[in-house]
Amino acid sequence: MFGKKKFQKRTIGDMPSYKSYSDALHPARKRSFMKIFLILCCVFLVVFMSKYIVTFAKWAIDQITKGTVSVISNSLGQSMTGDEYGNINVMIVGYGGTGHAGSYLADSIMVASFNPKLDALTMLSIPRDLEVYDTGRWIRGRVNEVFSVWVGRNREFATGAALLSSMLENIMWIKINYYALVDFWGFKWLIDTLGGITIDVPESFVDTTYPTLDNGYMTVSFTSWVNQFDGEKALEYARSRHSTSDFARSLRQQLIIKAVMDKLIDKGVTNITKVKKLYADYTTMVQTNISLKEIMGMVKYMYNLNNIFSYGYTTECSELNYKYSTPACFLYTPDRSLFGGASVMIPDGSTPANVWFYDYTQKFASYVIHHQGYLIEHPKIAILNGIDKKFAKQTLKISDGFANQLAVKLKKYAFDISNVQNFTQPISWTTLYVVSTWKVDQTIKMLQTFVPIFHVEKDTSMVDPALLSWYDLVLVLGNDYIPYLTTNPFSYYK
Fold first, then answer.
1. What span, in angstroms and rounded, lies between the C-alpha atoms of 452 and 44?
2. d(Cα 474, Cα 134) in Å, to the nearest integer?
3. Of 91, 260, 456, 487, which is least packed with CB atoms within 10 Å of its CB?
4. Which band of pLDDT confidence, cut at 50, 70 and 90, is reported for residue 58?
5. Distance from C-alpha of 303 to C-alpha of 69, rounded to nearest angstrom
6. Which residues pair with 434 in a beta bridge?
7. What is the mean pLDDT of residues 290-308?
């Protein structure tokens, strides 16, 4: 009825032992407590390790995806043509198009230069009011008019692009092999197709004279915050100029390009099928000489593009105080009467009779495009004046201001100069103290093209300890800087 249970023979040694009477009465309870304890430990371990497991899983998937994309990009894509340094340079032009006043005047002009070896992108904007002159092509006027000479007359986009890129090559002294031309309608379409973009607006502003299609004006405003823009709002943000400077406008346009790149990655631009579809749609709205194969060849670089630098040639800076100096400040505004009442800009060193002096604009472009290593390192630099004042005055008739002047100049070339002050005592030799434990070799190399630095020291015992906590490099000017200035007169531009 109940079945038979096999008899098990046991000896005294086989009998369980208990430490207490309670254990003898409830042996199962103790085992259950142990099970619960072990389960809780396992749960805690899983929860504690989960974020690392998830991070590792994402990393593994990301590496697999990168590898897959790289293989496909290499097999189906084609390398773009670089300049003599290997940089891939693309001229990007925005213009009004049909229905807008000045339909084919270039509204925005910039060059994007990508360095495949460093995974670095530099964007450099050219203000549209820059005066240019080309005797060979009978061109004299603002640079934004160059594009419209051929496009406006004959709708020859390729010829207009070649003419403008040739002018930019002279200004920047780089080879520009590619162009992308987009009108306002194409710009809005691109943003809307991506589902809008996210812009972290750095400064709030209001523009009460934003142009409308009926030749009137409207008010647009933007708040300093993370904003979601559709195509229309992004266009307003890019074009607004009367409430801010033309240079702030150029940097806003570069922010938009960054946001578009981020959105392309979010939408799976690294998926080759999507790239083909996007390219097909893109070329119906944008004039370009970049082929589909070349686009596919560039897809593999999208994942690692973490170094993006933005600049725009400008007149807005101060040579009196390094705090108010800015990168790419190599233009000035001449007397309007010399240009028929027009407000234009010309390069420093130029004259109204000779507006094509591009030595300084070319040098800046060379630094930020072909020597991006020091931009990537980006150390904070303090400049200290250790020159004996009596010695300086006897030689140059001036005794101070050397550190501030040099700081202004270096900021023009995009060095991060964060402090200027006097050294504790006069020193004989200009010395660069290396505080940073990170690599700063490229920055040191670039600094030596401006300053005769023969002593690079890692022993920072001579430097004020307060500086060591805030700066990566401390440059102390010594008495040898004065003889250098007598044979190499100081210039803010050279």
1. 60
2. 45
3. 487
4. very low
5. 10
6. 473
7. 83
Quote the mean pLDDT of the chain.
84
Q: Give 88-194+237-370's CATH code, choosing from 3.30.420.60, 3.40.190.10, 3.40.640.10, 3.40.630.190.
A: 3.40.630.190
Domain-wise residue ranges, the chain: 88-194+237-370, 377-487
**Which of 109-118, 153-162, 325-334 is least confident?**
153-162
> The dihedral of CA 128, 131, 134, 135: what is its sign?
positive
Q: Bridge-partner residues for 490, per DSSP?
A: none
Q: Is it the case that residue 132 has pLDDT exceeding 70?
A: yes
Does residue 162 contact residue 176 with C-beta atoms inside 8 Å?
A: no
Distance separating alpha carbons of residues 248 and 437, to the nearest angstrom = 35
* pLDDT of amino acid 304: 74
Location of structure tokens 């938009």: 256
Nearest Cα neighbor of 446 from 358, 381, 399 is: 381
Structure tokens at 111: 């060059």
pLDDT of residue 59: 40
pTM summary value: 0.81
Residue 368 near residue 124, CB atoms below 8 Å:
yes
4 — pLDDT class (breaks 50, 70, 90)? very low
Cross-strand partners of 180:
92, 288
SS (H, E, C) 64-112: HHHHHHHHHHHHHCCCCCCCCCCCEEEEEEEECCCCCCCCCCEEEEEEE
Mean pLDDT calculated for residue range 45-63: 47
pLDDT band at residue 328 using 50, 70 and 90 as cut-offs: very high
46 pairs with which residues across the strands?
Answer: none
Other C-beta atoms closer than 10 Å to the C-beta of 147 total 28
| The predicted structure's pLDDT at residue 36 | 66
**Cα atoms in the Cβ-side hemisphere of radius 13 Å centred on 399:** 7
Rg (CA), the chain: 32
For residues 233-252, average pLDDT: 82
Buried b (16+ CB within 10 A) or exposed e, 161-190: bbbbbebbbebbbbebbbbbbbbbbbbbbb
In terms of pLDDT, which residue wins out, 248 or 162?
Answer: 162
Fold of the CATH domain 377-487? Alpha-Beta Plaits (3.30.70)
**Six-digit token pair at 149?**
């000479």
Q: How many helices (H) and strands (E) does the chain have?
A: 16, 19
Q: What are phi and psi of 125, to 5 degrees?
A: -95, 150
With 0-12 CB in 10 A as exposed, 13-18 as middle and 19+ as buried, what is 372? buried
